[in-house]
């Protein structure tokens, strides 16, 4: 049975090649980078002790640097497992969840017709190229020269010219034996609601649009006449061309990335894929040496085009003009990307100087200014934050609450729960910093917020003042529940994390509450992300301690887990250890979680009271200061009571002794 290239491409795209190969190899933990889809193993085709077999999901290819074997999904199965090609296709299709195509005459006829349409598009491309070099194309050649394009660049992108004629292309193709139906199927003529069809592209510079297999599937045309109703005109949707699924220069940019010898994404313009706004931007950048740029086809970026970018690199850069329209387009792209973020997969944003596009920048000043813009690309989180804090003043509690609500609503659409949780934490950190008073000396009269933005906390505290009384604040800061990363809080977080690692079955009953825990420790934040990811990958009964610790050690968390275990054993908190009975682990975990939540609430109260005391002091409101200090003292006493209560419970736990083994070993 013959399979269409469309079907083979689709099942290859749906199944990462690492999933196919992983059934026959064990990935090397040191060299493999899972988040980037970059895998290493000992070669299954020849015996070796050190891993020289490499596969990359974004390329869909494998290669052994020892024996030289190379191939794709199908070749791996046919050569290693001895399957026939149809059997290999069947296996990949099953993994992709796609039915096999029926072996019927209609399908074969359709595939043959697609091939003939490709041939027609190639003939049209050659026609346009030839026309550019004739007397009719003189004006178009002059325009391209004025735009700074060299003859080599024009040839590389196969630019051409559609003459100002209703029948020139149609008659040329008819003379080559192309039928009327084929010309219409390629979208080369307009035939709706008119008795006689005529050429779709007239008096336009022609930009061939290539498929991922580097076949011409459509055209874009730039009008030479200022009176044309549309400056740029694309081919209509056809059997070959679906505008929202194609990026201009995709195949060439992908080849540039694959040939760059970079396994990881750099921060400069050469180490990623750059999405710009138009054909001429792509071509001008290519001529300046930036060969890894692509562009959507005259419309806003689509979800499918975003997926194409992610197939090439985990963090493409979206480049927009720095004017109002460009920033609005960047904001739309940010909202488009949010639901589809995954660990290690995001986008960055580069904003050009106002009034400049990439074509202008490299033509006037060379590549260096563009590289500088790329080096300053912002992450998605920063783009969203900048947009929201520039929308107005936040001088009232209601305005600040509205800002917080908008940000929470934005990130709620992120489908991946791990990424969503980290974005929620990022929002909390930014809001705390943005609204936290940071005073300069009393004579400066200014108050700064997050990132040095003097609009933070704007008019509600425009003048600086002395900080809140230090005695109460220092005493409160020394209490266990509010002292941040110091001993008790760090130990409590260690108990929470290690209990789940040793008793993952606890997650089955209380997953939502457990998954929402916020850790202060950066190390534990990373560990927790890996724990939740591992838990999401298996069904409940298979979520065992052995499975979880093996996954975590594979991802490099072995030393951290060992350190946590030693910490809790030294503190005699046996309920977090592997030896604790499940009922004791559950009870100890619930107690630790309750203390953790209350401690964080006290810390937030402390910060808010300090801020209010500072504002009241500046305003000279003595009555409010007295009330606020009294409230601060109550928070401090609550912290002391919480510490004492926790110590009593911990002591009872150690003495109860329901363990399978000693607390220390």
Describe the fold and architecture:
With 665 residues, the chain is of the alpha+beta class. The protein folds into four domains: 3-94, Zinc finger, CHC2-typedomain (DNA Primase, Chain A); 104-232, Alpha-Beta Complex (DNA primase DNAg catalytic core, N-terminal domain); 245-258 and 269-433, Dna Topoisomerase Vi A Subunit, Chain: A, domain 2, CATH 3.40.1360.10; 503-648, no CATH class. Helix content is 51%, strand content 9%. Helix 1 (5-14) crosses helix 4 (85-96), helix 17 packs antiparallel against helix 18 and helix 20 runs parallel beside helix 23 (522-536). It is globular and about 95 Å long. It starts with a helix and ends in a 9-residue tail after the last helix. The model is unreliable at 261-268, 438-489 and 648-665 (pLDDT under 50).
Characteristic terms for this protein:
single chain, 665 residues, alpha+beta, DNA Primase, Chain A, DNA primase DNAg catalytic core, N-terminal domain, Dna Topoisomerase Vi A Subunit, Chain: A, domain 2, 4 domains, five-stranded mixed β-sheet, four-stranded antiparallel β-sheet, 27 helices, 17 strands, 9% strand, DNA replication, transferase
